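Query structure, 230 tokens:
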């Protein structure tokens, strides 16, 4: 939405070699700083093959306000599968997603508590689509994070694989799964006893590992991205 308060940058990194397209989104909820900070860390990464597209600050107004919701409520409840998005911002984002036509989609978030430990919390979990081997990929990445990223003295914060995404709820990743039938993931960390830097690092490592298993390998360094508008 160029020229409006919702305008936000998009980063497109093409490897120059044929391969899949990955789309990473952060900042759907403006008060979840690790989500958009992790996406911003990925925005200049160029894959060995294929293309990485990053929308790090999807809900610019909410980010600037440091609130979960923007001007028109919870953005991540405005993407009903099989129907038109419910707000102008949601429609703009969905048009962008469809135009990107991603082979894999990752949405980065931060919860208050820990999944299956705290009521109504979803932190420290990866939620995969019921598409292809996405559940198996999520399990493998969970194992890697718990082995390599989460310290041994923080067993409470070990990641788990969450429930599968069926494409039925009015959330962005559900719309990707339900309408595009592509592997999609929500990655959630927690602010419970964890600082922002650690949360951001975990989200960055989780996204990087998920993309690698879909053929978008970011392990060979960074380059400047091509920035577009949204």
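Result returned for the query:
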């Amino acid at each position: 939405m160029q020229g409006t308060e919702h305008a936000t940058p998009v980063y497109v990194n093409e490897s120059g070699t044929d391969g899949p397209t990955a789309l990473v989104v952060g900042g759907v909820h403006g008060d979840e700083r690790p989500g958009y900070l992790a996406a911003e860390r990925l925005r200049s990464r160029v894959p060995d093959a294929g293309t990485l597209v990053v929308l790090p600050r999807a809900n610019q107004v909410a980010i600037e306000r440091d609130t979960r919701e923007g001007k028109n409520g919870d953005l991540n409840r405005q993407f009903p599968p099989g129907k038109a998005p419910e707000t102008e911002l949601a429609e703009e984002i969905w048009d962008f997603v469809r135009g990107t036509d991603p082979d894999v989609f990752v949405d980065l978030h931060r919860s208050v508590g820990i999944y299956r430990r705290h009521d109504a919390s979803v932190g420290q979990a990866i939620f995969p689509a019921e598409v292809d081997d996405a559940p198996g990929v999520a399990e493998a990445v969970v194992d890697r994070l718990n082995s390599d990223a989460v310290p041994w003295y923080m067993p409470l914060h070990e990641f788990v694989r969450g429930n599968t995404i069926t494409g039925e709820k009015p959330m962005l990743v559900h719309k990707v799964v339900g309408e595009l039938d592509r592997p999609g993931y929500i990655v959630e960390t927690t602010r419970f006893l964890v600082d922002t830097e650690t949360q951001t690092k975990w989200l960055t490592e989780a996204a990087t590992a998920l993309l690698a298993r879909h053929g978008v390998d970011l392990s060979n360094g960074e380059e400047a991205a091509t920035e577009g508008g949204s």
